[in-house]
Structure to design on (68 residues):
């Protein structure tokens, strides 16, 4: 069915961590290039163009961990 043809998409994510004297700092960036895309599910499962769902834009996550 041509309506269910999925061309795919490529996203770039990045993550890094840095050890501190007490703990670790982590940072991650999802969809680093901030690409616009329509999710696979909305293209394949819902053959209704009015119900397409865009994927998430760029997201940044910052974390800190400390072992005790």
């Amino acid at each position: 069915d041509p309506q269910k043809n999925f061309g795919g998409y490529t996203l770039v994510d990045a993550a890094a961590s840095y050890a501190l004297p007490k703990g670790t700092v982590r940072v991650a960036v999802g969809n680093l290039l901030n690409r616009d895309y329509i999710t696979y599910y909305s293209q394949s499962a819902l053959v209704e163009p009015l119900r397409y769902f865009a994927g998430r834009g760029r997201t940044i996550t910052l974390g800190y961990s400390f072992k005790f």
Summary: The helical segments are 40-44. Strands lie at 14-20, 23-30, 59-65. The CA atoms of residues 17 and 26 lie 4 Å apart.
